[in-house]
Automatic annotation (TrEMBL):
<feature type="region of interest" description="Disordered">
    <location>
        <begin position="1"/>
        <end position="36"/>
    </location>
</feature>
<dbReference type="InterPro" id="IPR012645">
    <property type="entry name" value="CHP02301"/>
</dbReference>
<protein>
    <submittedName>
        <fullName>TIGR02301 family protein</fullName>
    </submittedName>
</protein>
<dbReference type="Pfam" id="PF09539">
    <property type="entry name" value="DUF2385"/>
</dbReference>
């Protein structure tokens, strides 16, 4: 059997330089938002739910991925904070992907707990930091 080589992906070069304000907004010296830890935890929960809900037959894994995209786009359109949210989602997804290969009672328990925690974290962030 012949091994199939994956093509190397090369990121396209940006067509233009970032706008004057964009560099400062997304640079490495940008201070973290006070809610970064909570949003990263929420992203990790969404990743776990994306995997486990599909595994247990709910079929809405793509919806949880879309919720992350909405959160990411609303909070961090670009830069390292956006990358951290994506990494947290992937960590949550792949952590359960390695552990669970079938839906078990414990997987259903994790789903129930994650749904509750996601609601608490989202509510807490919205209550403390949302602009009325």
């Amino acid at each position: 059997m012949r091994r199939i080589e994956k093509p190397k992906l090369v990121a396209p070069k940006p067509a233009t330089a970032p706008a004057a304000g964009e560099q400062a907004k997304t640079g490495p010296d940008t201070p973290p938002a006070p809610y970064d830890a909570q949003t990263q935890r929420l992203a990790e929960i969404l990743g776990g739910l994306s995997y486990l809900r599909d595994l247990c037959g709910d079929g809405d894994g793509a919806d949880w991925r879309a919720k992350l995209a909405t959160l990411r786009d609303a909070d961090t359109p670009s830069g390292s904070r956006r990358a951290k949210l994506t990494a947290a989602f992937n960590r949550g997804f792949s952590g359960y992907e390695l552990t669970y290969h079938s839906c078990t009672p414990n997987a259903k328990l994790v789903i129930a707990r994650y749904l509750q925690e996601a609601q608490q974290v989202a509510s807490s962030v919205a209550t403390r930091y949302a602009t009325p």
